[in-house]
């Protein structure tokens, strides 16, 4: 019975016809990986759709354009996936520390995640505060 309850709480992901459960043994890691995969996939898909539109509008496609699009897809997917993973991990950690799971965790996690992502990407103090 405990195993069933644990499985219900594990992140469950679905990509088209592929279903999988993430189970590292740590809910923090499971949630962060799940967030990374889901949001990273969305960001990569968005980058491809955006570039496809611009290439179709222009009317020509070169090898350089495809290479640029693939690099952008990987970069955007990794960036947004990492940001989502940090946020989900922070939200879980704040909940564990506070001992409550409510909207305040999301607010605190959002501020901390914004500050961390901004610090890693820019290092500008004013930008870090604004992003938080």
TrEMBL record:
Alphabetical GO biological process terms: protein import into chloroplast stroma
**InterPro entries under this entry?**
Tim23-like
| Keyword annotations of the record | Membrane, Transmembrane, Transmembrane helix
Q: Which PANTHER family match?
A: OUTER ENVELOPE PORE PROTEIN 16-1, CHLOROPLASTIC (PTHR15371:SF2), TIM23 (PTHR15371)
Localization terms from the record: Membrane
UniProt protein name: Outer envelope pore protein 16, chloroplastic
From the Swiss-Prot or TrEMBL record, what is one GO molecular function term? amino acid transmembrane transporter activity
Record's bilayer topology term: Multi-pass membrane protein
Q: List the GO terms this entry assigns under cellular component, sorted alphabetically.
A: chloroplast outer membrane
In terms of Pfam families, this protein maps to: Tim17
């Amino acid at each position: 019975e405990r195993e069933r309850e644990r499985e219900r709480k594990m992140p469950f992901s679905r990509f088209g016809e592929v279903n999988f459960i993430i189970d590292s043994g740590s809910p923090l890691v499971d949630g962060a990986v799940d967030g990374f995969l889901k949001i990273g996939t969305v960001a990569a898909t968005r980058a491809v759709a955006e570039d496809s539109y611009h290439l179709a509008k222009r009317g020509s496609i070169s090898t350089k354009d495809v290479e640029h699009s693939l690099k952008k897809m990987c970069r955007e997917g990794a960036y947004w996936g990492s940001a989502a993973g940090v946020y989900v991990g922070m939200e879980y950690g704040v909940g564990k520390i506070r001992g409550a799971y409510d909207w305040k965790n999301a607010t605190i996690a959002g501020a901390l995640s914004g500050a961390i992502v901004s610090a890693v990407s820019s290092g500008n103090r004013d930008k870090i505060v604004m992003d938080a």
